[in-house]
């Protein structure tokens, strides 16, 4: 119990003595924006980069994948390290490393140098991403304010991911490919001193040594799983050694990591979190949400460029409605969550996204701008609503002393979902696309097999053939791609509806304990205590006791000091240790005798 109280006291002193928490949120969002931009901004620069550096196909694959692979594998390592040595310290080191790696990448003249720079960017990103979320969890102890902050945070991530192709297209068309990295340097030069001055330091539990071996096992396990998933998404056979080997090795290491954490008295990650249905369900919803988003975005970009013939910049502009809708969902997410609760918000967010995906099946071989705009708006709003509520529920289930580990779990699930989306939906797309090119009149079998690899490859083969056969292959490839797109959208809609069913395990209302730390410890103490048998059971759990959260007394959460002062006086083990749960509704927070009528 002293561990939790110490961490809580350290957090409060950091927040009370530091900068205004909303200024802190701005700094955190700017840093997240840079990391999210770098994840997508390179995609439109690949043709220019390939022409300049002449990398091999393998080197080009590593140039693109080194950043997400390294970043995903190190999230747990740096998230838990930040809990021990200080989240602000890890974040500032990440800023510095990110700026240095950006300069090296921008000036690279060899593929190997660019691959190394991209790997260093991944290390910097792994330092920044969980630190921003865990500091946010610490700076905003009140759940209502934290929900607003998470809405801004998730909207910022969506803005960065969607703005990357637009900004990258503009820079590549007007400058050179290295400029997509160079823009990071002045921003990092600005945010590093600002972060050092404004961000409060916070730590979690410091009991026992940091489990270095466990952190490396987690990093290697996640790396193996993500690498295997990415190879499967690139079209490699699932049972082939380059795909199955990393997957099996990564899964085995993660199993050993979990067993190791269960045996250790001071684990890296508090595995009790996964015994909470809300936490586990939130993580699963993040995976499904990212699986749908990244897979659909990849296919949508190919459709806009290869079927409709839009330029990279025009493609990025067509995706902007999705970004604006995500911003709107983030801005209104806190209000919506208080009114409808996590269960309905996540569930209906998935349903709205599935409806948007099914609407997009009306896309054909000709441009329909209005349909695409409406579909992207619904898709962005629905999916961002889901991700916002899932992240908020996940963080609210984690105590402050393990915020870094919880944030790392959320970000790792984010990355795994993205990789699985490319692999799964890409495989569905390829399976539906290839059969349409098996017997095109006048096209040799060898040319048909080459064209079945991708739509871009089909266009190259069609140009080489020329004449009537080339035109027939070109039309057949377009038609097969649109057919595969429709099949993939239907599969994606089905996965989203599965997510809507999963959301039924989330809490129905947004509960706000007066003292979240004491409430978490009290819940775990009740879970560990054996339930009384027979007639003593009723006597052991009197009505209104801490063991019955459903009947716990409520307090006016809006009163001054309700989120800190009152909770600090109720130590774990006292009658009020579980913390009064306050539903975030007007009826619950209205003080008695206020004169305002009930609703």
Automatic annotation (TrEMBL):
GO terms for cellular component: plasma membrane. Residues 541-562 have a biased composition (Low complexity). One of its GO terms (biological process) is response to antibiotic. Keywords: Antibiotic resistance, Cell membrane, Membrane, Transmembrane, Transmembrane helix, Transport. The keyword Cell membrane applies. InterPro entries: MFS (IPR011701), MFS_dom (IPR020846), MFS_trans_sf (IPR036259). The chain crosses the membrane at residues 21-46, 58-78, 90-109, 115-136, 148-168, 174-192, 212-232, 238-258, 278-299, 319-338, 345-364, 370-391, 481-503. It holds the Pfam family MFS_1. It is found in: Cell membrane. PROSITE patterns: MFS. It is a multi-pass membrane protein. The keyword Transmembrane helix applies. Residues 24-511 form the Major facilitator superfamily (MFS) profile domain. This is Transporter. Residues 523-599 are annotated as: Disordered. One of its GO terms (molecular function) is transmembrane transporter activity.
